[in-house]
């Protein structure tokens, strides 16, 4: 068994696609119209056949309160691995990304938390 697909709820799928591709550096994998929404996934350019991230619409009534509670408590919706958190923090900050937590080292893990502009906090992390 392996993880094939995971998702993050977003308030605007096309805005999310632009942020996740143009800023974070993922690449579009699938974009299929489903009514007013899309089956819209991105993947790492380093692993185009790897785990897909579904940019899922947050229209269900339970989702917005859930997302708001996570953000209010500073809890990331998901985490992405990077080679160097400090370097990625600097690159993304240079692109105007807002971080709610600058890089912090905790034992063998370094983490930082960013706002994805679509209603989520996302953690970037590196393990030594």
**Looking across the biggest beta sheet, what order are the strands in?**
1-4-3-2
Global shape? globular
Low-confidence stretches: none
What does the main sheet amount to? Answer: 4 strands, mixed
Chain-averaged pLDDT: 97
How much strand content do the residues show? 35-45%
What's the SSE pattern? EHEEEHEHEEE
Overall SS class: alpha/beta
Number of helices: 3
Number of strands: 8
- What's the helical proportion of residues? 10-25%
The radius of gyration is 15 Å
> Could you give the distance between the termini?
26 Å
Walkthrough of the structure:
With 128 residues, this protein is an alpha/beta fold. Helices cover 24% and strands 41% of the residues. It contains 3 helices and 8 strands; from the N terminus they run βαβββαβαβββ. β7 and β8 (121-127) form a beta hairpin. The two termini are 26 Å apart. The relative contact order is 0.20.
């Amino acid at each position: 068994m392996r993880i094939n697909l995971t998702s993050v709820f977003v308030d605007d799928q096309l805005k999310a696609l632009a942020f996740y591709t143009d800023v974070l550096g993922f690449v579009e994998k699938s974009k299929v119209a489903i009514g007013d929404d899309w089956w819209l996934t991105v993947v790492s350019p380093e692993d185009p056949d790897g785990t897909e991230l579904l940019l899922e619409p947050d229209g269900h009534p339970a989702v917005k309160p859930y997302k708001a509670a996570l953000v209010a408590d500073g809890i990331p919706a998901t985490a992405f691995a990077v080679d160097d958190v400090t370097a990625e923090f600097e690159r993304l900050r240079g692109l105007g990304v807002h971080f709610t937590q600058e890089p912090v080292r905790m034992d063998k893990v370094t983490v930082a938390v960013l706002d994805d502009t679509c209603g989520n906090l996302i953690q970037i992390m590196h393990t030594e």
